[in-house]
Specification:
Elements: E1 4-15, E2 18-24, E3 27-29, E4 32-36, H1 43-50, E5 58-63, E6 66-67, H2 72-78, E7 79-82, H3 94-104, H4 110-120, H5 136-148, E8 154-158, H6 166-183, E9 186-191, E10 203-208, E11 211-217, H7 218-226, E12 229-234, H8 237-244, E13 250-256, E14 259-264, H9 267-280, E15 285-290, H10 295-306
Parallel strand pairs: 4-9, 4-10, 7-8, 8-9
Antiparallel strand pairs: 1-2, 1-3, 1-5, 5-6, 10-11, 12-14, 12-15, 13-14
Helix pairs in contact: 3-4, 4-5, 5-6
Length: 308
């Protein structure tokens, strides 16, 4: 993949008797990318290896083509990060905190940069307020500002919306989308909260038990996992469903209102025989269309397949 900025090969990490990563092969291209999986699946361990904070037992890990252990200083210079449990100096004002971070990054004119970032994340009006008075959503936007203050090429966000309500999650992810669109910043978002993620991500990598079980552009994953599910809107769903269950091309079906959701094993037979069956039992077909999966449905399907 010519556009990939993160790449690991056969990455293995053991903590005592616990296998955290078991041959991880991760690819992340430019854009906004999701890194999803259940808690304890190896997401944070992977991030720590990418940042040069943890050394793998074996395998390879690269960011921008640089080895994550040998070239960790150069990678940290080009990567911003918002850790899951970021500690703040609660007595500091937002502006004072960001000025301090800007100086760590050797940013020219740290005060001006801090004020610029506060405007961009929507915290300028509370720049003089002590951080201890911030809501969870405000703290995450402040965390996003500190991750971006060094003008990084890539920002890694570890569970950035875990403690936010739905509206705050959407607001935070909208800021992520704005920074990618307006400033060309790439993002890797590690999370187990999926419903809003598909609104911003172009690429998704799914991890289970320290292994990447599937990854790709979201549009390709949607096509892959939606290809065999069709929705039939009909005048008598129960009668038609009963007949369809007798065929050999239905793997599974369920009824919601006047719609039958069919998981198909043989699409040609389904499309050929459905009108015949409906006509035979005098049932009308109002609509027939493929069902496109959400990211959450794709994730459930991948997990189910890998638990077999």
């Amino acid at each position: 993949m010519s556009t990939r900025i993160v790449y690991t090969k056969d990455l293995f990490k053991l903590f005592g008797n616990v296998v955290a990563l078991d041959g991880l092969n991760l690819e992340v291209p430019k854009g906004i990318c999701g890194f999803i999986g259940p808690n304890g699946s190896g997401k944070t361990t992977t991030i720590n290896i990418l940042l040069g904070l943890v050394r793998p037992d074996s395998g390879e890990a690269y960011v921008f083509g640089l080895d994550c252990w040998r070239n960790s200083y150069e990678i940290k210079r080009r990567v911003g990060v918002l850790h899951e449990n970021l500690g703040y100096p609660m007595s500091f004002s937002a502006q004072r905190f960001l000025e301090y971070v800007a100086r760590i990054y050797n940013v020219d004119k740290p005060r001006e940069r801090a004020l610029e970032m506060l405007k961009l994340v929507g915290l300028y009006d509370v720049r003089d307020r002590a951080i201890k008075g911030f809501s969870a959503g405000m703290l995450q936007r402040l965390g996003l500002a500190q991750a971006l203050i060094g003008d990084p090429e890539l920002v890694i966000l570890d569970e950035p919306t875990a403690n936010l309500d739905p509206s705050a999650r959407l607001m935070f992810l909208e800021k992520v989308k704005e920074f990618h669109r307006d400033h060309g910043v790439n993002f890797l978002i590690s999370t187990h909260i999926l419903p809003e993620l598909e609104k911003v991500c172009s690429w998704v990598s799914i991890i289970m038990n320290g292994v990447i079980v599937d990854q790709g552009y979201l549009s390709d994953l949607v096509s892959k996992y939606s290809a065999n599910i069709y929705v039939v809107e009909t005048s008598d769903p129960r009668l038609l469903a009963k007949e369809l269950e007798k065929t050999g091309f239905i793997k599974d079906l369920w009824i919601e209102g006047d719609k039958i959701y069919c998981k198909i094993s043989d699409l040609d037979s389904f499309q050929r025989d459905l009108p015949v069956i409906a006509s035979k039992i005098n049932v009308s077909i109002k609509n027939l269309q493929p069902q496109y999966s959400s990211l959450e449905e794709i994730y459930r399907e991948v997990v189910k397949e890998n638990e077999k």
